[in-house]
Amino acid sequence: MKTEDVKLIDAKGIRLDGRKIDELRPIKIESGVLHRADGSCYLEWGGNKVFAAVYGPREAIPRHTQNPLRAIVNAKYNMAAFSVEDRKRPGPDRRSREISKVISEALEKVILTEQFPRSMIDVAIEVLDAEAGTRCAGLTAAGVALADAGIPMIDIPVGCAAGKIGGKVVLDLGKEEDNFGDADVPLGISPRTGEIILLQMDGHLTFDEFNTALDYAIEGCNKVSKLQKEALLRKYDTIKEGK
Amino acid sequence: MPTDKRTLVIPGQILGDTRSHRAGSGTFIAEGKILSQLVGILNIHGNSIHVVPIKGKYNPIEGDFVIGIVEEAMSSSWLVDINAPSPALLHQNEVPWNVDFGDTERYLNKGDTIMAKVLSVDDIKKLQITLNDRNLYKIKGGFITEVEPTRVPRIIGKKGSMMAVVKKYIRCRIFVGQNGRIWIDGDTDDIEKVRSVIQIIEDESLSFGLTDRIETLLKKDAKDVHV
Predict the structure, then answer these.
(1) What is the residue range of A25's domain?
(2) Three-state DSSP class for residue A184
(3) Nearest Cβ partner for B38 among A38, A59, A150
(4) Tens-digit pLDDT profile for residues B106-115
(5) CB–CB contacts below 8 A, A to B
(6) DSSP structure string for B80-140
(7) Same domain for B159 and B115
(8) pLDDT score for B216
């Protein structure tokens, strides 16, 4: 298929899946879904299905990775073999190692790591079904799972992407928009302060377009952040009522 | 301060002002405001704000009584898992026996269970435990169950009220470690009963008047009462 054949956005600003330019895909978040993990989260974001599980804080191994002053955060992003159209060769690759690294660093910014010297916090992010924006979905799920595990944080991190399709800046790219679009800007923030903890860009944007994309993404993050908080409170509301 | 509603808070939620309140446990200060760092229950005591965690790893404090499982016997000490982020060190001088160098395995081995007291926690959270206190020994027999460490205060109850109720109606010996491990000894039936009661307490730990409800529950099928 030639890229010119695909019309990603029409004259009225309506996208392929019927969304407006600043509309998110439907999101469903559930916390505390895995019993073996210390904290967990299941997230559906459009066609993305992501599990996040948190273990720890526990003693960091191998020993030489221990930091005597703070905990290290080990996020591991992994895509299931059946998560994409062509079978994905299982195991870590260049892309998933990169995403693991940027998510780990984003999470380190919000976790109060100095409370757990010499330990490590493991975050496993499993993508079961992928449809663009999995790193943002992964970060969002990881934030809920960490809060569920009772790990002290200054904020619940959240991610959301913006991008450019058919010459227009839009929020939260879908699958075709990601594949045939012009640019993709995944963003992670700490919603209380608005501090940016993850920012990447793929494609080309002018300075103005970039700023618009950033504004859209921040607004998207704030919307998702509300859903995260609702998910956390919903779980404990049922506990509070008892049986 | 029993109110009829418990307030749930989440990380990053603003709880108060530093001018009017003091930041207690589970909170941090940013831009003159007190914020929560945990998912937990808001607890305002006098003018200090605390957040009591719902879930979380055991955070050892000096003087805590814990149940540990020996991980490794070294030549002059043992490494003991006490459910904390890192294993605790039990030195041969901190046990009631006279241990020769290299002879530690004769006294405690991998897999053995002990009741211990947290002796010290240093700046980098290195832990030392001791057996040199009353009623601390190697556990023989009985059953160990694990609960969420944050629920332990509820299982013990105010000044031990909950445990007193359980011991009043069920003939057994119970030791609740601050790290969430509970040792129960008695008849098989009694152990099973205590386990189910602990499960109820853990599940409903956020509700009110739990001790009274547990008492009515136990009273129903109590055979003999030990006061």
Answers:
(1) 14-241
(2) strand
(3) A150
(4) 999 999 999 9
(5) 96
(6) EE-SSSSPEEEEGGGSSS-PPTT-GGGT--TT-EEEEEEEEE-TT--EEEE--STT--B--
(7) no
(8) 87
User: String of b and e for B16-48 (b: at least 16 CB within 10 Å)?
Assistant: beeeebebbebbbeeeebbbbbbbbbbbeeeee
pLDDT score for B220: 81
| Short-list B136, B194, B140, B203, CA closest to B167 | B194
pLDDT score at A87: 94
CB contact under 8 A, B10 and A229: yes
User: Which residue from B39, B125, B207 is facing A150, i.e. has the nearest CB?
Assistant: B39
- Residue type at position B87: P
Tell me, yes or no, whether B126 and B160 share the same domain: no
Residue A8: inside a domain: no
Q: Which residue of B has its CA nearest to A120?
A: B85
* Mean per-residue pLDDT, A40-50: 96
A68, A117, A233: residue with CB nearest B10 = A233
DSSP A89: P
Judging contacts by C-beta atoms under 8 Å, the chain B residues touching residue A147 are: 10-11, 38-39
Question: CA of A147, closest CA in chain B: separation in Å?
Answer: 6
pLDDT exceeds cutoff 90 at B1: no
Q: Are the CB atoms for B62 and B31 separated by under 8 Å?
A: no
Look at residue A2 and tell me if it is in a domain: no
The pLDDT value recorded for residue A122 is 97
A1: pLDDT strictly greater than 80: no
Give chain A positions within 8 Å (CB) of B54: 150, 236, 239
How far does the CA of residue A239 sit from the closest CA of chain B (Å)?
7
- pLDDT tens string A200-213: 999 999 999 999 99
The single-letter code of the amino acid at A104 is S
**Nearest residue on chain B to A156, judged by CA atoms?**
B11
Spatial distance between the Cα atoms of A150 and A94, rounded to a whole number of angstroms: 31
Crossing angle for the helix pair B210-220 and B188-203, to the nearest 10 degrees: 150
pLDDT digits (tens, 9 = 90+) for A75-88: 999 999 999 999 99
Whether B135 is covered by a domain: the verdict is no
Paired with A78 in beta bridges are: A126
Min Cα separation B138/chain A (Å): 25
